[in-house]
Amino acid sequence: MTRGGSLQVWALLVGGALVTWIVMYERMRGMDGGPGTDLGGLVWFLGVWVTMMAAMMFPSVAPMALFHARVARGRSEQGTPTAPTWVFLAGYLAAWTLFGLVA
Hints:
Blueprint lengths: L2 H26 L13 H36 L7 H18 L1
């Protein structure tokens, strides 16, 4: 993988984490009402859950995302189609979303 490709993946992950932290800060303001605070409906929960998972988990998945991007680039140079890195990250968030629904 080229250095530019690595920088793009890092920028996506760090930028995504920063944006989602800002969104979480705005959405969760006022949630310190203690027991009995209305947590909203399912759609609100999913929006907050996915945002929170992206904020916290993008930095931890960065090494694997970079590895996936390197492998995908190598395979594309060989003519073997591979899912792009954003599909890998979307699947990662989908798995955490499913976990949030079940939990």
